[in-house]
Amino acid sequence: MKNRIWAFQIASMLGLFALGCSDDNSTPSEPEDKITLADPTGVHEGHSYGEWAGEWWNWLYSNPASTNPALDTTGEFANENQTLDVFMLAGSFGSTESRSFTIPADMPVFFPITTTQADNCGVPVDMQLTNEELRAYANDSAAAVTELNLEIDGETFASSPEDFSDYLVPATEMSYVVPADDSLYDFQGSDFEGACSPSYTSGYFVMIEGLPAGEHTLHFSALTPGATPADDFAIDVTDDITAE
């Protein structure tokens, strides 16, 4: 079946926090450069996590395959098509990658640690699924993740899917547009262009409320076992980021 299953993960290690001092019975101050994950149940920059997940896929598909951040092995394309008030980060299509790039300091950053997408676009009619089946497929794929790790500045935010259950976006309907040439569909060997709707995405998504100016290292990993070890889907990505 040609329904797309993309998985991405990103984790980060961001500069050491400076601890505030307290006087007598006063409450200790917050670290000056504390990295905060946005509430997964809230609305941020006008969108919920599920809505941002759809925006993320639209951003990813808007980039040609030849300069797509998810296929990038160096980081030179990380800033491609960044047109929103939130910086989008990509992981990889199931590979180990190390990248270096620059992003705006203090700008919200949104990314999936691992994600799945399912729809009928580019799929032969006799292989297409109902909307209910597509939604179930996306949810089942998210539930199949057995290992997940997110670190920020050496501090572990998640070391298992259970640790990050609040950040699991269940199957959410979305739509996206595929360019006519040099698209991710072309990269897959699939003949499709234009608007794709409905599509469904699920996965573990994160919004960082901004990275302070300076040098940062993001690292993430996740695993979805296959029928045999050779079929396992594993990602490990390290991003050296300059925020300025």
Description:
With 244 residues, the chain is mainly β. The chain has one domain. It has 3 helices and 10 strands. Strands 1, 3, 5, 6, 9 and 10 form a 6-stranded mixed β-sheet that branches. The protein has a 4-stranded mixed β-sheet with strand order 2-4-8-7. The N terminus is likely disordered.
Short characterization:
With 244 residues, this protein is mostly beta strands. Helices cover 13% and strands 33% of the residues. A hairpin with an 8-residue loop joins strand 9 and strand 10.
Gyration radius, rounded: 18 Å
Helix % is 10-25%
The DSSP helix count reads: 3
Largest sheet: 6 strands, mixed
Find the structural class using helix and strand composition.
mainly beta
What is the total number of structural domains?
1
Q: Could you state the order of secondary-structure elements as H and E?
A: EHEEEHEEEHEEE
Beta fraction: 25-35%
SSE blueprint:
Blueprint: E1 13-14, H1 49-62, E2 87-88, E3 96-103, E4 109-119, H2 131-143, E5 147-152, E6 155-158, E7 168-178, H3 184-188, E8 194-208, E9 214-224, E10 233-243
Parallel strand pairs: 2-4, 3-10
Antiparallel strand pairs: 1-9, 4-8, 5-6, 5-9, 7-8, 9-10
Q: Which key features would you list for this structure?
A:
mainly beta, 244 residues, 6-stranded mixed beta sheet, 3 helices, 10 strands, 4-stranded mixed beta sheet, disordered N terminus
